[in-house]
Design a protein that fits this description.
The complex is a heterodimer of chains A (317) and B (335). Chain A has 317 residues and is an alpha/beta fold. Chain A has two domains: 264 residues, no CATH class; 38 residues, no CATH class. In chain A, the strands form two sheets. In chain A, strands 1, 2, 3, 4, 5 and 9 form a six-stranded mixed sheet that branches. Chain A is globular. In chain B, 31% of the residues lie in helices and 20% in strands. Chain B folds into two domains: 184 residues, no CATH class; 122 residues, no CATH class. Chain B is globular. Classes of the chains: A alpha/beta (317), B alpha/beta (335). At the A-B interface, strand 2 and helix 8 of A face strand 10, strand 11 and helix 10 of B.
């Protein structure tokens, strides 16, 4: 068991036994290997169930909206989870005083699809040991370098450390390389509009409109999503270019300056659809146009959500 | 029924033969997974995967979006009849069995669905048995097996360098005309392979009494616990070979009335025009999914509405495992 995992258990048990929180949101082992499940711990003695490893693939901040604002939540928060939590605080989704961020520096989420691609379709178990991942599958035993199994979003992560956590566990990691993070954006930008559209279409056309991307995303919390609205209908529900393109484009635009680049959408997608090339580009625009980066404090509003009477561009008059 | 054989390398020839009088649909590689597509050459077929196609076989008969009819300036335009003759090659028995369950819905006495029925009548399904069932598979638990013949016209068993082919129906016999028969000893070998695959599979749970238990705990805290991590997305139901719920919409800009897959996991699925939602939270929706598969199907046709393909287990974004949900239901005791 990693020290980090036992520290998380200890802190969760302490917070619960001191009655500082009502629930701790973390991960627990599930029946399927490589797929720990979000866990909601309410009693100190259950803190032993918590696990933490590279296969914890969800962004736990997506569960904050399940609770009334009065619920005191302890959130196991990696870099992206803490930033999502702050972005949600800015949007008044949960008050800072009722949130305890159990900060964990994150070496990146491991992509079970990459494990299967290397170790075979039937993986039986996997364990992380000193930067290596030991995998047992029906084909035998394998050892992989952790870096080669990182989920794409994590391989280009800029902020592995939790932002302003209440408790910091594990050692602080060096910040990621912004130039490296920008590479896929630059590669997309140099394409012609026809090529970009072809890329977009190739990805979007596999969409089965299950909305796993939406549900996995901490920033998608609308009580009624635009695609579910029926009077009027904003997008066709029929699977075809019209409705599916509308879904992917509007989803991305709603994330401009709000997306924390965690990649939970792509990890949730059952059809291996790439989506972060759009949201990362929009975030990059927010940086270059407005100098804004989401989730670094609990007051700065995303530019497209902010309104100021002194706005120098009076495009609405 | 009679069993015939071909050498593995003679498969393309057989496929070509079928292609002379039918469209051949088979698993092809797509991104990191396989998908059923109309093939133009046998070389496109991908049979090396232990995992099933990502998208279920049902989509070939109940497409995710189906135009029921079109309208233009007040004129009714019927949809094109989907009656092309198709040979679907490489289906897994779990997916084919699901078709027989769906037949009871779409070909129910007195309410035949013409779209389903036309496609079913025009298709032959050639299934490949699973000599290596996957970790997420549990077909034997739900009354099926890796070499289940239900829903198949031909069952293929891989044997060393050969394929043994068994015609299950008359349609299947036509597909296998003029192929050399299997010897008695080879037939025995085929049976052994089939039995070995089934015996390798562990029981995921005891299906007896599941329905009664689910009814007994309908109002219990169990559902509150089991649904906690559910995201409420449509992965499990859309990839499910037996889920068939749909919504009918008018795509007014194109003048089409379309039948689209829908799912009980979506809040909007049960939302009524008044604004009332009888399944207001994930709790009721999770319960509906489980109750439908493991109780209501049994009430209707005395069969579990799950064929154990394991897609929902593999692709759930939060690792929810229906086998574990059933085990927990069975072990549930009221406090």
């Amino acid at each position: 068991m990693s020290d980090l995992q036992s520290d998380i258990r200890k802190e969760a048990a302490r917070l619960l036994s001191e009655n500082s929180v009502d629930v701790v949101i973390g991960f627990e082992n599930a029946s399927v290997p490589l797929r720990p499940q979000p866990a909601f711990i309410k009693r100190a003695e259950d803190a032993e169930k918590l696990v933490f490893n590279g296969f914890c693939q969800n962004n736990l901040a997506t569960f904050l909206n399940r609770y009334p604002k009065t619920t005191r939540i302890g959130l196991v928060a990696r870099g992206c989870e803490s930033r999502a939590a702050y972005a949600l605080m800015v949007e008044h989704q949960h008050p800072r005083e009722n949130l305890v961020l159990i900060g964990v520096s994150c070496a990146g989420i491991l992509d079970w699809r990459k494990v299967e691609a290397r170790a075979g379709e039937n993986v039986l178990s996997a364990e992380e040991v000193n930067g290596e991942v030991k995998v047992r599958s029906r084909l035998g035993e394998f050892t992989f370098d952790r870096a080669e199994l990182l989920h794409d979003s994590c391989a280009r992560c800029v902020h592995p450390n939790p932002v302003n956590a209440d408790i910091q566990l594990g050692e602080t990691l060096p910040e990621g390389d912004k130039a490296l993070a920008r590479q896929p954006i630059a590669e997309f930008e140099v394409l012609s509009s026809t090529e970009r559209y072809a890329f977009f279409t190739h990805e979007a056309e596999r969409c089965i409109r299950c909305y796993a991307c939406r549900e996995a995303c901490p920033m998608c919390y609308c009580a009624e999503c635009f695609v579910d609205h029926t009077t009027p209908r904003w997008a066709e529900s029929t699977v075809g270019s019209s409705g599916t393109h509308a879904w992917h484009l509007v989803r991305a635009f709603h994330q401009a300056g709000r997306c924390v680049s965690c990649g939970a959408c792509e990890r949730a997608c059952p059809m291996d659809i790439k989506m972060t090339y759009l949201t990362d580009k929009l975030n990059d625009d927010m940086q270059s146009l407005y100098g804004f980066e989401v989730g670094l404090d609990d007051t700065s509003q995303p530019p497209f959500a902010a309104f100021s009477l002194d706005d120098k561009d009076r495009f609405v008059s | 029924m009679k069993q015939v054989q071909i050498e593995k390398n003679a498969l393309p020839e057989l496929i070509q033969r079928w292609a002379q009088s039918a469209q051949v649909v088979a698993p092809v590689k797509k991104e990191s997974y396989t998908a059923f597509e109309v093939i133009t050459s046998p070389e496109e077929i991908e049979l090396e995967r232990a995992h099933n196609t990502r998208y279920p076989l049902k989509a070939l008969f109940l497409p995710q979006s189906e135009v029921l009819f079109r309208y233009h300036n007040g004129e009714y335009l019927p949809a094109e009849a989907q009656d092309s003759t198709r040979v679907i090659f490489g289906a897994r028995p779990c997916d084919a069995r699901a078709l027989t369950l769906l037949d009871t819905v779409f070909e129910e006495e007195g309410s035949h669905d013409p779209y389903w029925k036309t496609r079913r009548a025009a298709a032959s399904v050639v299934g490949i048995g699973c000599d290596q069932p996957c970790e997420s598979c549990f077909c034997t638990t739900v009354g099926s097996g890796p070499f289940d013949r239900s829903g198949l016209d031909v069952l293929v068993t891989p044997v060393d360098g050969k394929y043994a082919l068994e015609a299950v129906t008359e349609k299947g016999q036509t597909l296998l005309a003029n192929l050399p028969e299997l010897s008695a000893s080879e037939q025995k070998q085929v049976e052994e392979i089939q039995q070995r695959a089934a015996s390798q599979m562990k029981a995921a749970f005891d299906p007896a009494g599941v329905r009664d238990k689910l009814y007994a705990i309908f109002e219990s805290e169990y559902w509150k616990q089991v649904q906690q991590s559910c995201l409420g997305c449509g992965v499990c139901t859309f990839l499910c070979p037996t889920c068939f719920c749909f919504d009918i919409v008018d795509e007014t800009q194109r003048g089409e009335r379309v039948r689209n897959w829908d799912t009980c996991m979506f809040s909007v699925y049960s939302l009524e025009a008044s604004g009332h939602n009888p399944r207001p939270s994930r709790l009721e929706r999770t319960r509906q999914r489980l109750m439908h598969k493991y109780a209501y199907w049994l009430d209707h046709i005395d069969q579990i509405g799950c064929t154990g393909c394991g897609r929902c287990v593999r692709y759930c974004p939060v690792g929810l495992d229906i086998r574990e949900m059933i085990r927990r239901a069975q072990a549930w005791e009221e406090a």
